[in-house]
Amino acid sequence: MSETISILTDDPVDYRQRLIVGTHTVKLAEALPIEDEAKAIVIDEAMDILSHCVPPGRHDDITNIAVGYVQSGKTMSFTVLSALAADNGYRIIIYLTGTKTNLQGQTYRRLRNDLLGGNRFGDYKIFDDNLRNYHIDINRVKNFIDLGDCVLLFPILKHYQHISELADIFGSVSIKSKLNELGVLIIDDEADQSSFNTYARKNSQSDDWEEDEFSKTYASILKLKSVFPSHSYVQYTATPQAAFLISNQDILSPKFHTVLTPSKGYTGGKFFFKNETMELVKTIPDEEVYHYQRNPLTDCPQSLLNSLREFIVSVAVKVCIREDISFLTMMIHPDGLCASNEKFANWVDGNLASWRDILNASSNDFARRLLVDDFRRAYEEITRYVSLPPSFDEIMNVLNRVLLFTHVHLIQSISSQFSSIQPETEIDWEEDIAHILIGADMLNRGFTVEHLSMTYMPRSTKGRATADTIEQRCRFFGYKMKYADVCRVYLPQKSIQEYNDYVDHEEVLRSTLRQCSSLKELSLHSMQIANTLNPTRTNILSKKLIRSRLFGWRQMISVDYISHNNKVVSQFLESLSSRWNYCHTYEKPMQNHRYADVSIDEFLNSFSNIKYIDVPNITRKIVTIQYLTSLRETGHSHIRIYEIAFGAGARSRSLTNGKFAQLFQGNSPDWSYPGDRDFKSNDMLSVQIHHLKITNEVSIHLANKELYNLAIYYPEIEDYVSLEEQDDDED
After folding, report:
1. What domains sit in the chain, N to C, each tagged with a CATH number?
2. Given this model, what pLDDT does residue 209 score?
3. Long-range contacts of range 676-682, CB-CB < 8 Å, 24 or more positions apart?
4. Is the pTM of this model over 0.70?
């Protein structure tokens, strides 16, 4: 069973007790092709996830994460979550389905078939990803919202244009006013792919936060989130390393996590790489490990021919003779280049055709005798773990038929230049008894390869591999127990070691997720990982931002979350009431300030609760927290807080383009007052708290509002954080 770990002060128990398992969930569960015990588990885990979401009608937002294994049924989990949400009053569910159109189509069909079934005039309305006629689409969405009882489903491509266009529709005047009381879920499938900001490392070279770049998908997700006053962002992934390594203050960092339980029959990393009874992983010799530059093979490698023959024999055993299953699939994953895919496709297609011709020759033909010997060795290997296997003669009787009904698929979106095989992106699985899929990126994360029994993957890394990247290539994980005895995986020796190390890392991570009570504990323990692996892509981590960025004054100007932030700052100031020291007294009350030295932990407890919606302030908040954490770990214990103009009330400021032009008051002409910037410590980080009043009536809801903004001074402190190693993951 799952265990959901809370790291917020709110207790979700009461909300879970109010959740119901209604007709939507019951109807879906009845149709799921799993045992009753597994149905109970997946519903229970969906209850855990939904209990930590923002209820319909409450103006708040939250980010949660569900962690499963690769190919373990995450789509089923969020489909059940969708039905459960429908039972409990949620009206809008958006799915960020993946970065490839085949994944978007795959999810669209699953949702349509599982939730709508044959009823197109029911409780759900599913929108395709062709929302391009802006005004017509606004009216369609508005009309379905007005219908009042229909749950709207939006499975869209995880692409900045698609996300931004959907945000524009919901942000339109005619729809935005209708969102206040609606429950909204945003489900990010394969959440660690493309969602996070990939410019973190590059931004570290810029001098000004406002000039920072943000990856387009990341910015579009923030835009989408900003239009919904009440929503929950639920991440689904089998590789959560990135989500847990970015700061827990990032707007896409999860606040609760749920460990998903695979159903019976799941064959994952432990089954393939830690199996003491079956040797299912085979080594591709170093000289046969293909690479378009380092080792551009000109002839088909022997290990590929061996795997191909073993696959053909396994189809003969399981599909033709035993009839245990309707078809089997082989996947060949060379590298990320289309030319490489086409080279392998030509090798495979050419050898299959050659074998058909040779087997049609007379039994005395020399080439036929050699080929039969090759297939005999393949038979001996593939039937090692098959109980009471058919005889080799039985295999030979159907072998040519298997070859004839084997379909070679080139899986890529670009037309072939070096192969007569035309590319495909979707497979009709029941069309043939054997499928051989050749491709790379389109066979990565999220793509379901049905009945995959044979994997040949020479793709490897030159240096240290990135854990979450290589794990997502494991399409050979899944529910395969029915034919696990004929499953094989061909990998380079380096990859085998990396996957063994990853399995150890994954089990430690999942165990820690079940046991830890906070993300702080998780960060201390969960990233235990072998030296052969980097946990994730370093360009999404903000540690590099800490270097040389935080020096001098930075103003955190914001007019968002005024009521919430006022409460946080007021409580913090009140806690300092007996500790104030007073600065030099000047002529005007607006120029008189006070200060207190507080512990880093005390400040972080309050600062971490301040909310921002704009990307520069979100980023600045993240790295400030990391900066202070690193200072604390190197022996610095306190920072200095200044309350500016504490006895004068709120300073009047006008807004220009929705922002204050300046927090600081400058120096007086005769320098009798040095200016606000002068109030800082050169030995410790200093925070000025400015109490402001908006004077120009830019909008009704902001006119005459009082609020707090911060200005932070970062002194020049050397060596406060260690440098990251360079990312060696090069294909």
Report:
1. 4-259 (3.40.50.300), 266-494 (no CATH), 543-714 (no CATH)
2. 46
3. 676/644, 676/711, 677/553, 679/583, 679/593, 679/595, 679/642, 679/644, 680/553, 680/640, 680/642, 680/713, 680/715, 681/640, 681/713, 681/715, 682/715
4. no
